[in-house]
Amino acid sequence: MRFGVFGIGSTQYPRCGWACMRAGSRAQVQLVGEEAGAAAGATRCTCTLCPRRGGRAERRGVGVWAALERWSEGLWAALEAAHPLPPGLERLSEDELLPASFSVAVSVAAGGPGVEVPIRVRGRVRARVLRNARITAEEHWQEVRHVVLGVDGAVEYRPGDRVVLYPKNPEREVSVLLECMGWAGIADAPLSIISRERQGEWGVWGEGGEGRTTLRHLFTEVLDFMSVPRRTFFEFLAHFTENRAFAEKMRHFCTQEGQEDMYSYAGWPRRTILEVIQDFWPVNVPLDYIFDVFPVMRGRKFSIASSWRVNPGRIDLCVAIVKYKTVLRGFRYGVCTRWVSVLSEGMEIGIDVLPGVLRKTGSPMVPIVLVGPGTGVSPLRSLIQERIFEGSKDNVLFFGCRSKDKDFLFRDEWMGYCSSGNLILLTAFSRDQDEKKYVQHIMEEHSKIVYDYLYNKQGILYLSGNSRFMPEVVKQAFLNILMKEGNFTFEQSKACLLAMEKGGRYMQETWS
């Protein structure tokens, strides 16, 4: 058997590249490094890992696209050697414009202007916004909101589960895009959309590969133009400008040599698709190609911060609003959290509920240690609420934030649990003293209780939060505790941690 495997992943996450390695081992091949990509057609597996987003390697063109190009060169060479093209056929040029995935046209027979048949409601669960309040101090730089959604009581979820929110683009920016693309005059006219690739399937476009909607609806709820463009966007857009210099610039961005320039132009300053279109205006994208040029606006996942058993028919979320400055004028916003920040009470939205990574295991009498700085406390709140509902008292929470008075999330609730004897709360406020203090420092300061709960009593550790540095420093703190309190060697402490991970007693959910 001759095959190749290309695996991508972020080194910020544990078990990065695990699926690629598993595929290789199952095929009984030897896993080799990225440098062996030229032999991809041979009986071996190539695993390539994507560097951390925004790192030097990504800026210098050794990110996923550069790695894929190098790997693909070997793949195509192997395929052409094994299966040469018939006489008279040649490989398509890299600059060849492929046919559009959809046929899109203004539908005269659809019933007149303003008639809209949505192509599919996103979100199988209908939810009503019951509360949307800021829970950090007004003067604090980070806005965090407590969002409460009301759902049908039949919608059940477990601690650790997640909600998928489907954002909408702001009305003003939608109008700007439609005007910029020359579509303002047909923005509210019904469209006939026929898929050329999904005949007979049910997708976001409709049943049988066909649906009707309007351009305004598409760019409000379905297509994304407020995120940072990827390479494929420039590949298509280069075909739809009459300015030769613009076309060459965009094609340069799509080369391996141009990756650093593309990152400097779009990635580093977080320039949006709309801003790119304005920079390279005019562009004339045919309606047939809108689904190829513009990416679908994906749903965003948020950990549920409540227990269904405690509050059936209610879903709590703890959402940090993404808003920051770069070298460009104006603030940069997260597509979803910007939408969340303006949700008003009484509004109805579509959501999905999905299983999460963290899982409540064992008896409520089994001790647990929870580590959740910032909004990482969201799924841990769900877990704590449910365990207290079941009568548990052996719960230790290590919570960290910047200031006791500005971003101490759910402080009153934690204090109530502490007063009733259901929770031990240990906090790290990193900016309230000269020396910065984080959750890993508090863990080591209270090493005896961590060791007692997790080693002597065979408890469970739950870790949740940002994936950048926190998971590794917390893991190192736990290793230090094992060596200090149990007189373990470093190798013994690593073996103990590995056994806990394999046994489901060291669980973590992280995000970037």
TrEMBL record:
Keywords of the record: Cytoplasm, FAD, Flavoprotein, FMN, NADP, Oxidoreductase
One annotated GO biological process: iron-sulfur cluster assembly
Cofactor(s) it depends on: FAD
Residues covered by the FAD-binding FR-type domain: 122-367
Top-level taxon of the source organism: Eukaryota
GO molecular function: flavin adenine dinucleotide binding; FMN binding; NADPH-iron-sulfur [2Fe-2S] protein oxidoreductase activity
A GO CC term assigned to this protein in UniProt: cytosolic [4Fe-4S] assembly targeting complex
The UniProt record lists the keyword NADP: yes
Name used for this protein in its record: FAD-binding FR-type domain-containing protein
High-level lineage: Eukaryota, Fungi, Dikarya, Ascomycota, Taphrinomycotina
